[in-house]
Design goal:
The chain is α/β, with parallel strands linked by helices. About 40% of the residues lie in helices and about 15% in strands. It has an eight-stranded parallel β-barrel, surrounded by seven helices. The relative contact order is 0.13.
Length: about 325
């Protein structure tokens, strides 16, 4: 486990957020600098080796060396419970250029958990071990294999068992959302629980959860005793939060946020039916309003609008 010898960040990751942080959002949020890695939304593995097009659809960055336009590395995340199939798909992702493989054991969605994926597996350390061991054997040692977990499902009873299982499987890195599935996304995050791993964990640990500003980042590093952080909702609320935390930058002014919202409209979405931008820009505003009061007003102005052409004049008028 990495030790927090100062408040300087060693490694900063943009979190995977299903249905939110796609390749276009990764592009926008990494432009500010500060991020070392992006992890994709999960690719669900159920009963087959997925075709190459599934990987490219999830991670178009594979076409450019698995990096965002500004050069931040991208790692594909898999989700499932079938060890051998996950291993096959992990090997394919590496062949296509992914910078390592991440495995999701943290998703709290009921539909995912019902199909025995995501956080439900935190009840089964043995399954976690089998999955990670198979993937580690299938992926060349020169490539990083990581996992993302929560503190547990209903409670933290199996937290240490799950971490031991992941470490025993030969995993290189572990990210921990410092809440249980039962906690969901309700504050606070229990960063101090991560520190309890020090007695046996030798993997680098990345702490995640409730990091909204530089003060939170410092508090998290102190409580968890790791200098590796992962940003999710906070990076959507303050689009340059990575630079705020990493380089002591000022939070992006609203005028620059508006520019990003307009640039978001310039992306061409393959197969788009015209709903992508209207839906996603409203979704983004629900995060932005946590840091910018202007976002609430803008959301009220555009919430009933259904096309890009209707929305853009409101961004320009601001």
């Amino acid at each position: 486990m990495s030790k927090n010898k100062s408040n300087a960040i060693d490694y900063l990751t943009l979190a995977p957020m299903e249905g939110v942080v796609d390749h276009m959002m990764r592009d926008l949020l990494t432009r500010a600098g500060g991020f070392d890695l992006c992890v994709t939304e999960f690719l669900r593995v159920t009963d087959a080796l997925l075709p190459k097009r599934s990987f490219y659809r999830l991670c178009p960055e594979l076409e450019q060396g698995a990096k965002t336009p500004c050069g931040t590395q991208v790692r594909i995340q898999l989700l499932g419970n079938h060890a051998e199939l996950l291993a096959e798909n992990a090997a394919r992702a590496i062949e296509l250029g992914s910078h390592g493989i991440d495995v999701n054991f943290g998703c709290p969605a009921k539909t995912v958990n019902k199909s025995k994926g995501g956080a439900i597996l935190l009840k089964e350390p043995d399954t976690i071990y089998r999955v990670m061991h198979a993937i580690r054997r299938a992926v060349p040692k020169s490539h990083t294999v990581s996992a993302k977990i929560r503190l547990g499902f209903d409670d933290t009873e199996r937290f240490h068992d799950n971490v031991r299982a992941i470490q025993a499987a030969g995993v290189n890195e572990l990210a921990i959302h410092a809440r249980t599935k039962k906690h969901g996304y309700r504050p606070p995050a229990y960063w101090h629980e991560i520190k309890s791993l020090e007695s046996f964990c030798t993997m680098p640990i990345t702490a995640n959860g409730e990091i909204w500003n530089a003060e939170d980042a410092n508090a998290c590093m102190l409580a968890s005793n790791t200098n590796r952080l992962m940003l999710g909702r906070g990076a959507l609320a303050v689009p340059n939060l990575s630079a705020v935390i990493r380089h002591q930058a000022r939070p992006m002014p609203w005028s620059e946020v508006l520019e990003l919202l307009q640039q978001y409209a310039d992306f061409n979405i393959k197969g788009d039916n015209g709903l992508y931008y209207p839906n996603r820009v409203k979704q983004w505003l629900t995060y932005l309003k946590l840091a910018y009061p202007q976002a609430l007003s803008l959301f009220s102005d555009i919430k009933t609008l259904k096309t890009k052409a209707e929305i853009l004049p409101f961004l320009q008028a601001e």
